[in-house]
Design goal:
With about 625 residues, the protein is of the alpha+beta class. The chain contains 20 helices and 22 strands. The termini are far apart.
Length: about 625
Amino acid sequence: MSVKRRDRTIFREILTPLLVVLILEMLFMMSSIVFGDVIGRLNQNAMDILAQQTENRGNYLLNDMIGSWSNLGMLSDDIDAKVQSRLEAGSLSLEALNTGGADCVSLLREIAPELATTMYAKKISGIFVIFDTQELTPATAPDSLQGLYLRDLDPTAAPSQRNADLLWERAPVDIVRSGYIATDSGWKPSFSAQDTAQQDFFCKPYQTAYADEHKLKEKDYGYWTTSAYCLDGDNRTAISYSIPLILEDGTVYGVLGIELLTDYVRSLLPQTELLDDRQGSYLLAFTNEDETQLSPILIASDTLDMQQLTAMGFALAEDGSSAENLDKTYYGAAKKLVLYSNNAPFDSDQWYLLGISSKKSLFAFSGQIQQFLFVSIILAFIIGLIGILYASFRLSKPIRHLSDEVAKAQTQNSIPVLPATGIREIDRFADSITRLGREIERERDSDNLTKLYARRGFKREADQLFLRPDVLRHAGLLMIDLDNLKSTNDRFGHNFGDLYIRTAGKCFVTNTPENTLCARMSGDEFIIFFYGYDSQQEIREKVAALYQAIREVEFVLPDGENMGLSASGGVAWYPEDSENLSDLMKFADFAMYQVKRSKKGEYKEFVLELYEQQLLEHQRLAEENRSKNQE
């Protein structure tokens, strides 16, 4: 007896296997994410990127600390030779180094130019020399010590003529009166006991060498301060490196050192390179040998301060490559800075540079990806189910029509006329990926704060223009640096500073023609490229109109005062000055800094003769320095 099979529709025959495949695909996708540890790998990738950036920045900082800043051998040898020569000639005594007097002032006057030259060469914020030949403890420290302390508040700026950008913090009256260097507000003619005995920058290397009876070389007693200090009468904090000064007979007669203002060190640790939205921080810290608890020295951060760091209590991992705070909410990638040779007196001080971030910020991208994957799976299932139902219906419909035509033809006993059918393919996923790629490119090439082109976007657009001289015709590149942004940030906070930058960007866009590229290069630096003109004069008129608009912008400060928008600029011409974008940017930047050094808020055109003159001056100074060093 045959069993009658149950009839099944073509719709069901198509729907069932496709639905099974869809469910299996969803299970496979979820299994791949879970068992493939996608989120864990993204988190690890974020930590690896943070570690690599910290490693790079640490190597850069270590190179400056070891290769440049602490390399004081030539200067200390020169000072030792001058003192030794004067002692042998009888024109100086060790007692004079302690008590001062004309002989000591004469020596200080002779070495002062070398201190300034060394400070400029090493791009440091300060340099000092202090004389003393007696044991130095808080109990036996003299009331005053003789020496010099010279400071440069902007080490990155080009050296000014006649040392006009330097300040005396400590120097005898006779030296101050005879030179061109001004005194700072906290200037004193000598070092007080508060400057020396209670501060590690002098006492530690000096007393260690004194007690050790000069068993080692001067550089082996070198010491980096592990806590920031202030000079007596000054509120600016600094760290320093100093070495003792030792004569041929082993007499320790003072120290020589360099100073780094903490604000300057922070400027060398740009935390913006760690994470977007300024959520990363650089921490310079140290720990004693065999200890894991880190002691902060300084931090470059927009989100954390020293008090918060101390409360968090960062501790190194066993391998020393990372650190976490006590409640495990912050992660830090650690780069060890080897500052001392083995068995040096201070080699137990182990320095580290940490790139730190809250784990929430560090793993934000992986969290977004996790949400995106979850939503994508749900949407894919819904869309797939709808697609399966639609495809099953579309595929079964023509078959049903064919069946109906065949049945109709059978009843009419005629040859069936079968209608033509067609299927259209739609590629929505590829279209979505294309739109996403365009959105990413747009976000990458624009500045989030001002909505202008970022450096990458400007370079891309400008490179295309430079391939079309017929489009460029006459062009002018205006490099602009906003004035007073740092003081605005310091007085009213970065939120108001951001408003200052956004308003400037809006002013630039509003008051420039359509055939103009406006971009924010970095910080408070902008670039505006005028092109497609018949002459320079047409461009000059546009630049003049823009600066008139800049002068008309006013802010109401939080304290109720009014402040105008001020920007210093420099203009370089295409093709007169150069047909190369890189050269135009360099020339415009040179012209801009001519304004910054003279009268801010104006703009100047690039003058090739001034540029070549400065290059020759720098070469001359370099030759003079080399000649002095050889002598």
